[in-house]
Amino acid sequence: MAGVTTPELVAAVSEAGALGSLGAGYLSGERLSAEMARIRQRSEQPFMVNLFVPDPEPQFSAAELAAALEALQPTLDDLGLPRPALNPPYAADFGEQLRALLAQPPAAVSFTFGLPPAAVVQQLQARGTQVWITVTSREEAQQATQLGPDALVAQGSAAGGHRGGWQADALAPTLELTRELLELGLPVMAAGGLMTPADVRRALDAGAAAAQCGTAFLLAHEAGTSAPYRAALERARWGGEAAKTVLTRGPSGRLARGLANRLAAVDTVLPYPAQNALTQPLRAEATRQHRPEWLSLWAGKRVAELTGEQSAAALVAWLTSEL
Ligand SMILES: Cc1cc2nc3c(=O)[nH]c(=O)nc-3n(C[C@H](O)[C@H](O)[C@H](O)COP(=O)(O)O)c2cc1C
């Protein structure tokens, strides 16, 4: 979970016997190396790193930029901010991230938003690192399989955060997609809406090699979830309107599931990752001013079932208690 997974969270999850995963999509190569070193200081257990496969630099006109800024004007006025400048590059350098991983390879690397180059898959595997690819449909899974990955991550429609696919999102129920992808012969990790020990058990009973939990860890003590984000999640635990999630392009330009708020209602956007770069200073200021209505509050459909704040170790022990 990029922006949320700290080295402390990853190490605590791995120490507790699960596989901690560092969401490194937004990190520079240098920062990624530093965060991996912090994980290794805290734990000798295996951990995973997740990267975003970059799209080509997005193209858009001055008129499209003006329209996207206009749609954000209420946010800017509300937060007392001037119009932000937008300069490329809009995303972290994928090549630098890969160099950091190859220098100190983790146990596994998962990719999302697309297919990594075949040479990258081979270089990682040659260093003993497993390569997992996130897919959202059978079509994507068939393409991914051509690259010879070690596993697929089946992201069902209930999942919090960005949709991880690149072509044909089936927005399928998690276990349905998991069962369908198992036919391709690779281990499948089930992701989306797995919030309780019974969910984890059901995922493994369905044939998944692992259950990938995201939202369930957002209130872990060690998570980097900001104070206003935590407050919104605490409200969501009461259910009702506060727990309603939507699929939106508002914060980043890429479809993602999060709690319904005013930023999620913004629908005139630049392509990803330009929109992400455009809203970044707004979201930083909204965090400072404790204004969750202008944050990306990524959360899965079953967010109301989130347990309260506790340690990652206690969460892992609970989630695996029916295995
Ligand atoms: C806050 C948040 C951030 C996420 N960031 C990433 C990410 O950086 N990379 C990724 O592959 N998936 C990301 N995801 C999606 C998760 O990998 C996973 O598919 C999802 O959390 C599973 O559904 P659940 O949230 O219902 O457990 C994120 C999810 C959340 C909730």
TrEMBL record:
<keyword id="KW-0288">FMN</keyword>
<keyword id="KW-0216">Detoxification</keyword>
<dbReference type="GO" id="GO:0051213">
    <property type="term" value="F:dioxygenase activity"/>
</dbReference>
<keyword id="KW-0285">Flavoprotein</keyword>
<dbReference type="InterPro" id="IPR013785">
    <property type="entry name" value="Aldolase_TIM"/>
</dbReference>
<protein>
    <recommendedName>
        <fullName>Propionate 3-nitronate monooxygenase</fullName>
    </recommendedName>
</protein>
<dbReference type="GO" id="GO:0018580">
    <property type="term" value="F:nitronate monooxygenase activity"/>
</dbReference>
<dbReference type="InterPro" id="IPR004136">
    <property type="entry name" value="NMO"/>
</dbReference>
<dbReference type="Pfam" id="PF03060">
    <property type="entry name" value="NMO"/>
</dbReference>
<keyword id="KW-0503">Monooxygenase</keyword>
<dbReference type="GO" id="GO:0009636">
    <property type="term" value="P:response to toxic substance"/>
</dbReference>
<comment type="similarity">
    <text>Belongs to the nitronate monooxygenase family. NMO class I subfamily.</text>
</comment>
<keyword id="KW-0560">Oxidoreductase</keyword>
<keyword id="KW-0223">Dioxygenase</keyword>
